[in-house]
Amino acid sequence: MLNFEFKNPVKIIFGKGQIVKIAQEIPANAKVLLLYGGGSIRSNGIYDQVISALAGFDVIEFGGIPANPEYEVLIEALNVIKKENITYLLAVGGGSVIDGTKFLSAAALYQGDEPWDILKNKIRTDKGMPFGTVLTLPATGSEMNSGAVITRASTQEKFGMGGPGLFPEFSILDPLVVKSVPQRQLANGITDAFTHVLEQYMTYPAQAFLQDRFAEGIMQTLIEIAPRIQKDPADYEAAANFMWCCTMALNGLIQKGVPTDWSVHAIGHELTALFGIDHARTLAIIVPGHYRYNFEHKKEKLAQYAERIWNIQEGTADEKAELAIVKTESFFHSLGIDTKLSEYTGDYQGTAEKIAKRFTERGWMGLGERKSLNPDDVRKIVELSY
Hints:
The chain has 386 residues and is α/β, with parallel strands linked by helices. It folds into two domains: 11-177, Rossmann fold (3-Layer(aba) Sandwich); 182-384, Dehydroquinate synthase-like, alpha domain (Up-down Bundle). The protein contains 15 helices and eight strands. It has helices spanning 22-25, 40-43, 46-53, 71-84, 95-109, 116-120, 183-201, 209-231, 236-249, 263-275, 279-293, 295-309, 317-334, 351-362, 375-384, and strands at residues 11-14, 31-35, 58-62, 88-94, 131-137, 147-152, 157-162, 170-173. The strands form two sheets. Strands 1-8-5-4-2-3 form a six-stranded parallel beta sheet, sandwiched between helices. Strands 6-7 form a two-stranded antiparallel ribbon. The longest helix is centred in the middle third of the chain and has 23 residues, at 209-231. It starts with 10 loop residues before the first strand and ends with a helix. Residues 188-382 form the Fe-containing alcohol dehydrogenase-like C-terminal domain. Its EC number is 1.1.-.-. One of its GO terms (molecular function) is methylglyoxal reductase (NADPH) (acetol producing) activity. It is an enzyme of class 1 (oxidoreductase).
């Protein structure tokens, strides 16, 4: 097991009817900017619950944060923060709204001239404007971590950011919100969380036995509840487990003491930036080709995954490992997720070269758990994903 440090200060308030507790978590004298997305919270009753809980607070609203939080839109919100002297941020939404709020938390206190530099130059945020979240769409785990990913439409770029100053002070997780989540987003959420686990698990053995079991437990639970939650999003038991799996998949716990990959995310972000494909679906596009291209380095964990997750007990280690990739792709298909870039766009030719060029220009020369993947490797992986 590798050396590690772990601190996660986020207060989780989980369960039915917990949105009312917002008022207990925000300072009484706070001037609050309420941030949300396309307005679904108004039709499913969550908005009314939040507004009721904020009675007595000075609240200004900013809606319209898109599914891939766009820099240009967030700059509009940043101007509101500065003009209105906002002191506290409240994100009500899924990962996109929460990620956008994290950017605003950092940008509100940033001393530089160009907030985009926080992303472009990977500036670590040690102190941000305080914020809390009300999760409405389980998927990214952003409600319990300190990372965010932001898109800039004008340049077709998507970059990550983070730092210890970007943990939410609290996050309210009410599984009742899942019943209003559209089927497409349920499939995305399951796929996103599952792939988050794979990025931290599918590397090489580090003799971190408990971490492996944590990761396997999340994946097994997602596989078990996937058909239930897709059949009936109002199934509270399934919804609660789905929501907690998504949070646990990326709150930092399962990556401690083990090597992690994240190449799938780095490449997938480019597909979203170039084509607007849902984040989770870009991950499903890249995973099979990535694992086949890096088969020799990953086959020990792939074989373990085959045995423990898919109950594949016969065959050689190589055969088990290859079948595990097939099973993973089939799982994505069972959710209604396509796994080839050509199934999303007819304009895919040249994409591999374009992404490899971008990685070269940025100096991204050592991706993966072994820091060994260069832009030409990325090109080959993307080509396998066509």
